[in-house]
Design a protein that fits this description.
The chain is α+β, with helices and mostly antiparallel strands and 158 residues long. The protein contains 2 helices and 10 strands, in the order H-E-E-E-E-E-E-E-E-E-E-H. It has 2 domains: 3-35; 44-151. The relative contact order is 0.10.
Length: 158
């Protein structure tokens, strides 16, 4: 390793240590523990749809996902920006990889072995049931088929 390469790596390591051990970013909790803060300031979304709530207002439904996995659904009023969070009707975990908004304005998803229905009109989960793993594959194939037909401009109503 050349001297310049070693010095540049040492400098980068020094900068990393100084930046992330700076008191402004860390908090001493005592007894040898330090809170360095969260690794990300917010959660990620795993599916977004626009629809109408029970009062006829335009809303956005967002599946929320963080270090625990999928944990809640967020409903955001498109006009006011006010939001309401709905916890999943089963323990958090895994990830929402697909969801669908039906023509009857119900938002469906299948993850962590559970099938769930959210009704934006009632602002609540109206159905949740644990399903067998083989059913998960059948539904995944069905969703893929729907996507394939949609992309080929073969339209249908759910």
């Amino acid at each position: 390793m050349s001297a310049i390469s070693f010095i540049s790596k040492l400098f980068a390591f020094f900068c990393f240590v100084v930046i992330f051990n700076h008191p402004a970013f860390s908090k001493d909790l005592g007894k040898g523990f330090t809170d360095h803060g969260v690794t990300t300031p917010d959660s990620n979304h795993r599916g977004v749809v626009a629809t109408i709530d029970g009062e006829g207002r335009n809303v956005v439904l967002v599946w929320l996902f963080d270090h625990r996995g999928g944990y809640a659904l967020l409903m955001i009023d498109a006009e006011t920006g006010k939001s309401q969070q709905f916890s999943m009707p089963f323990p958090p975990g895994d990830a929402v990889y697909s969801s669908i908004l039906s023509s009857k304005n119900k938002f469906y998803t299948l993850f962590k072995g559970y099938f769930a229905e959210f009704d934006p009109v009632k602002r609540a989960f109206t159905y949740s049931k644990e399903v067998m793993v083989t059913i998960l594959m059948v539904v995944a194939i069905f969703w893929y088929l729907c996507y394939f037909l949609y992309k080929r401009k073969i339209f249908f109503k759910l």
